[in-house]
Amino acid sequence: MIQSLIKPIPKEMRAEMSSDIFYKKCCLFDEECSGRIEWHHNLTYASRRVNAPFCILPVCHFHHFHESRSDIKEKLNWIMLNRATSQELLEYSKAINYIELKKRLNVKYNNIGSCSK
């Protein structure tokens, strides 16, 4: 099962992301940040990691290692959902309604610092 999740980021996308300032620091920048920046595939769909810029997030090693912790996972989802367009969210809203989840998380986090589209 783990092998099916492995999906390298295409070279062209990696080059674009490398030049984007968003990917230079941890998107969860807080007192727990430590270590180098790693790219985290935050969305898994149909048992595969999604290679779309809105769902690949820059996180420090600490946050990447602890990404399954509920408070970290929720904030990563909030950031990812606010980076996506409504059309992108609709494409992946099958088992989970990502548009409703985005609304709920925006209320919870008061839409502070989001990258909404």
Main sheet summary: 2 strands, antiparallel
Mean pLDDT over the residues: 89
**Alpha carbon gyration radius:** 14 Å
Low-confidence stretches: none
Compute the number of structural domains: 1
State the order of secondary-structure elements, H for helix, E for strand: HHEEEEHHHH
Q: Give the termini separation.
A: 34 Å
Annotation, overall tally of beta strands: 4
Plain-language structure description:
With 117 residues, the protein is an alpha+beta fold. It has one domain (2-109). Helix content is 44%, strand content 12%. It is built from six helices and four strands; from the N terminus they run ααββββαααα. It has helices at residues 2-5, 11-19, 61-65, 70-83, 86-92, 98-109, and strands at 37-41, 44-45, 48-49, 56-60. The strands form two sheets. A two-stranded antiparallel ribbon has the order 1-4. It has a two-stranded antiparallel ribbon with strand order 2-3. A hairpin with a 2-residue loop joins strand 2 and strand 3. Helix 4 (70-83) crosses helix 6 (98-109). The longest helix is centred in the middle third of the chain and has 14 residues, at 70-83. The chain is globular, with a radius of gyration of 14 Å. The N and C termini lie far apart (34 Å).
